[in-house]
Amino acid sequence: MMEQLRLQLPDWIEASRIYAEKGQVAHYIPELAKAPGDALGIVAMGPDGETATAGDADLPFTMQSISKVFTLLLAFMDNGEEGVFAKVGMEPTGDDFNSMLKLELVEPGKPFNPLINAGAIAVTSLIHGATPEARTGRIMQFLREAAGGADLAYNEAVYRSESASAHRNRSLAYFLKDNEVLDAATDVEEVLDVYFKHCAVEITCAQLARMALLLACGGTDPLTGVQLVPRRYVQIAKTFMITCGMYNASGEFAIRAGIPAKSGVSGGILALVPGKLGIGIIGPALGEKGNSTGGVHLLETMSETFDWSIF
To answer: Given 195, 201, 296, 303, which residue is catalytic?
Structure first.
């Protein structure tokens, strides 16, 4: 499969790049608007570390919502399933990722799942650490380990841009505190600071593919043999990726591609074929539901060709 990927990915990239013309880079975070809208790149990595690369795979980008998968895993390890699900639900919403509609309409007022913004803010509040710096440090260390020891850091300019423009996220966070999803003693601005920083972690397709491979192999790094995350928690995270990982286009993506994936508004997509492959994609031009237009088309093409759907 890897040899076929190497042969066909350059052509597939160019066929999918056309779809980038139908999207636009994210503008509501000003720093993200600087990304090249016509870029598209991919790295696919197998359990032996062998890779297939094509397109603009060296273009760095920030994780944005992709980081939510890993803060969820860390929150599970810190609090267990019961502790996490006391604060967030297990269901898709059908609403935009930054909507607060159901927080007000549906009792008990907690976020429907951990991959929408409200849910990810609640999950971030569960990460252990005496200070915001300590919590950010633990998240960064976990992300570095998941990426095979990569020297990851958050992009200062994107972090500051997100923090300055995050009026909706601040509204969500204060609403969560009013609903007692965030504890009374929780400092909302401190939680948001940690949240903005993990969303602004800068990464490449190769590093993201390594992180995806960890999930594809059930939480055990196949290149080191180290079990970084309990298999049960990875199983839950992959289920959320199928049901909620592509925002409110998750159902369509499940039908067309049928593999676990998580997108971010920088245009990144983490995807995986269980037991076989970790995939990192960058394509900054987004469709109306916040997913990379070129990246989604590329994954659908690959999944159809290799019959990857888990369904």
So the answer is: 195
